Amino acid sequence: MRFERAAYHWRRFKRDKVGLASGVVVLLFVLMAIFAPFIAPHDPEEADLNKRLKPPAWMEGGDWRHPLGCDQMGRDILSRIIYGSRISIFIGVTVVLLAAAVGTVLGLIGGYYGGWIDTVLSTIVDILLAFPLLVFSIALMAATGPGIKNLILALTYKEWVPFYRLVRGEVLVAKKMEYTEAARSIGADDLYIMFRHILPNVLTPVVVLATLDVANIILSEASLSFLGLGVQPPTPAWGLMVNEGRQHLLTSWWVSTFPGVAIVILVLALNLFGQSLREAFEPRLREK
Question: What's the whole-model pTM score?
Fold first, then answer.
């Protein structure tokens, strides 16, 4: 039955040409990140001041050894964009996996047991919801200091909340279903019911939400790196690259523009892909 339902949703998704095209774009970015050492034409951290602010290949003074030009340190922009995809995708996926795990487990516990446990968790969620994610992350990064590890933790601290709210709502419905009552009547313990019967039925909306959330995390990471609170130089990160080229925007627009375009394309593709998954697999999420 589950296989037939999954096949039905997959057929619906395949009819969405925008979703399929977006998925291909996301896959290309993932492959680019995985095979960066083989694709990048230069070392992303290798500086050459003789090539400082070298324009793209199609402009006067450019050449095809550096198709997108060089930055203020003479580093190849294309290579830095390729390696920067590793940072963005790694942080986005890591934060979402941690947040989804924490939010799902707490949502299962709060929704299943209710009572004071649910009250305490819901109060914490309400407090966290009072602070925008970026403001909350900026405050944490200012307190803990910049760096990839602190950046992941700062983004995870609040990002589990949407997963908690989603799973809790699904569990409140699932624990009253016949299959849950049947498992309870034959003596199954709470952990077995939660993780064997309820969890598989709430995983689909969690996966859909996670896909949409990766785009938000990538955008937040780029924003924090742009502000100097995230990834630190000379590590190539798209937000940091946009900030480094800000002073040369009028004369050397390519330094900031191309990393910015990479952010826009990946975030847009992830959002469109996630929207298509939501429409095909879990249309109820539109109301959440």
Answer: 0.87
